[in-house]
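Margin note from the TA: students keep mixing up input and output lines. Inputs are the sequences; the output is the structure of the whole complex. Example:
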Amino acid sequence: MPTIKDVAERSGVSVATVSRIMNNRGAISEKTRIKVHKAMKDLNYQPNEMARSLQRSKSHIIGLIMPLIDYAFFSKLADSIEETCHERGYKLMLCKSGNHQERELEMVSMLHANKVDGILICSRVGDASIYTKYDLPIVSIDRDIEKVPSVTSDNYHGGILAAQVLINARCKAPLIFGGEVPEYMEMDLRFKGFRDECAKKNVKSLELFVKDCDSYQEKLFTEFISFVGKNPQVDGVFVTGDMIAAKLLCLEKIEKFIKNIPVVGFDGIEISELLGISTVAQPIQEMGECAVDLLIRKVEGKMVPERSILPVKLIERKSTLRFRHE
Amino acid sequence: MPTIKDVAERSGVSVATVSRIMNNRGAISEKTRIKVHKAMKDLNYQPNEMARSLQRSKSHIIGLIMPLIDYAFFSKLADSIEETCHERGYKLMLCKSGNHQERELEMVSMLHANKVDGILICSRVGDASIYTKYDLPIVSIDRDIEKVPSVTSDNYHGGILAAQVLINARCKAPLIFGGEVPEYMEMDLRFKGFRDECAKKNVKSLELFVKDCDSYQEKLFTEFISFVGKNPQVDGVFVTGDMIAAKLLCLEKIEKFIKNIPVVGFDGIEISELLGISTVAQPIQEMGECAVDLLIRKVEGKMVPERSILPVKLIERKSTLRFRHE
């Protein structure tokens, strides 16, 4: 059976170039691409992934690993993924990692042992490069992992939109507020987009990322109260998730403060609509559909894009609108 | 291999009696019970269920069918079920029926074909007696189905608690409000409990069940507004679910009306805490744990109770409290 090395030799290019063409990555001239594809055809070469998936007998089961299920972003995503799996004739095996790295890895092994055709993962492990080693199609959701196809929303642009809506509501000292997230999480791009847009508009933004807390902890809010006490110039808040934004707006202790400045959230979950909170909405349903589609294409041995970035959308509601119409 | 008929003949009772003893149902004298158990032992009789589960090779996969995933009651339930399955060494296959009867039945067949060890179901089919015919352990959640073990919360007592909290807040004309539900749903018991408690306290309750709507539809609220317009005596509301209660309390159109009367919800999901809504909390996590435990026991061929009814708890918050402290 011909190898990638044989293809490289026959077409007179490096193995790396053949690999880039197979994975649809990097700038490759059309001439080289045609030459390599011809060599593949002549040698009757099948990429490993395809060979593997052709050999493997299909279970038509897809595994899904999420940090938790009972948070609206994830339950909506799971709903969409289940629906799409059903439409495509696949079953869904659902696993929760509880944000524990070890459990996440255990889940992957378990799903592998259970002969799922592929895995959708919202990974929280520090070094996710481990997923490139698995002999199993994997698609990452909400996070980029090198050499693993991913589906994310445009977090960077979302950050820009959040900055714009606060600046349009006349903020001079907007605050980014949320729990601290590891650098490898896509969420980081939201903050970058926000900072860049503020800098562009000559607005000096502030930041408060609370350590060692998840979104449900009291600590997040006590630190917020303390921070705005010390920084009374804060005149607008970009909260990194809708649920935290909702809790912030329902805090009786700082009701007078928080209800008199514009607030924008992120996610686009139902609570933001209910409480009239402006938000940068992620296309959660489409993210689920796209992820399942990519995974099934990988299972079928087809080539898939390495990065699928879906657009976000600003939904303005009274939490910012009323400050523009003053 | 001895049959149930052989056991009945040997112990001198009817097949129905043996069946009742096996399923732990109905009033049976201790004497009869001992006699039948002795006959079972003498004949080395194994109930079908047990025989079947011993024959069947285990997949250690449990199927879960829910009407939807992205509603807090269900996502919290799914979270708990996944967690418990994991602890017990089982995997979870998650299916959504979308409230469609046909799809629910299709899901059951699919799970059966995929050799799950058993199914947890939140059934929405009209005639659920179909589930007694399956050669597969099934446990029903949030609904009683004859001859199928079920896990529910104490909806009737929940209705009583809801009535009490409104009556304690001095309501003379409390309204039960929600979408119409089929009679076979456990939710009906909430209303019964509410009515019974009102009658006991000589309070005349009103009712509004909106037809052909799900909890997300506008119709629910336009009919509410119209109803209270025609029935201005309404001075308190028992809403059949926390999410509807939250939406009602956030309706700007009737803000003045709804914020000046006590409101109590049902479920105990996060939104009620966030908005300070009193609620009858279901033990959602424990319901999930209990359901998995029962199903695994059935899979292992053990006898399980037909009905497991878990207690509910009233959580009082400002939506009713401030009317008591006036």
